[in-house]
Amino acid sequence: MKRILIFYPLFGLLVLLAVSCSKVNPEDQIKDQLLKMSDMIVENSMDSIELIYPQVKMVESLNPIDITDEIVIKQNENKDGRYSVTLPSGISMLIDLDENGKISILKSKGLFAYPSDKMEIAKKTGMYDSNLTDEEMANRMSDQKFFEFIDKKMKKISKNIIKVGKADSGWYIANYPLINQTDQDISGDDYQIIIGEEYYTIDGESKLPDRYEHGKDIPAHGKVWIRCEGSNHGGEFLKGVKFNLSPEELAQRFVSFTGDEYEEYLNSSAKK
């Protein structure tokens, strides 16, 4: 009996140590599963990620996550199995850890990814709000009517990037000013000059096919002159310009946003 009394406390201590050592740290469980998720993001395995974060079905891709020692994991004060996770990149998540050690992501910020051109427009027009969750931001970004509203606005502005001024006419010569109405320099490579030709003969008016010429460099808010020649029977005239850039490229280079466009859209009939 004495032997039992002597060794029982030691045996109990060993059991307690074994149990405590086998207990997995919740932070390590979260890190391990986020590491797996990081690989899924690289492979764009959205179906697999959707099993732990159903809301990802709202987007086509996610921003990469870097799981390093600088990751911050904090348990909620009420210790309900939920943890706030903040990555060095600024991405944050609210994660639920169940009794089996499996995670599910309840919400996030900065994880959802979008095409760079759409995100650029969202930031410039006031549509983007860093205080919104990814789900809330995804709902905004899915509003195609807003991007159509911006597209129409950009095309309207794009038409006025270069203005054809009134010709300074002389004897069989007309000089047309091309005026840059933006605060950015315009390269001659960005556009073509369209020259029309009309002549009058005994049989009536005769038009020749339009002629396209390489543009001229125009400084910001500056102008250049285009010379057209004629005769008693007609001659050349400046019809306009044609840009070699897409509407998106034109908008990116020459259209300035105020940051109030999203608010303007919400208050407009285009939203309805």
Q: Bin the strand percentage.
A: 25-35%
Proportion of helical residues = 25-40%
Question: Secondary-structure element order, as H and E?
Answer: HHHEEEEEEHHHEEEEEEEHH
Contiguous runs where pLDDT drops below 50 for at least 5 residues: 1-8, 10-22
Number of helices: 8
Protein structure class: alpha+beta
Distance, first to last CA: 87 Å
Largest sheet entry: 7 strands, antiparallel
Radius of gyration: 33 Å
Structural notes for this entry:
The chain has 272 residues and is α+β, with helices and mostly antiparallel strands. The protein has helices at residues 2-22, 26-42, 46-50, 116-124, 134-141, 144-158, 247-254, 261-266, and strands spanning 61-62, 72-75, 82-86, 92-97, 103-109, 112-113, 162-164, 168-169, 173-180, 191-201, 204-214, 223-231, 234-243. Strands 7, 8, 9, 10, 11, 12 and 13 form a seven-stranded antiparallel beta sheet that branches. A four-stranded antiparallel beta sheet has the order 2-3-4-5. Strands 1-6 form a two-stranded antiparallel ribbon. The longest helix is centred in the first third of the chain and has 21 residues, at 2-22.
Topology record:
Elements: H1 2-22, H2 26-42, H3 46-50, E1 61-62, E2 72-75, E3 82-86, E4 92-97, E5 103-109, E6 112-113, H4 116-124, H5 134-141, H6 144-158, E7 162-164, E8 168-169, E9 173-180, E10 191-201, E11 204-214, E12 223-231, E13 234-243, H7 247-254, H8 261-266
Helix pairs in contact: 6-7
Keywords:
272 residues; alpha+beta; 7-stranded antiparallel sheet; 29% strand; rod-shaped; disordered N terminus
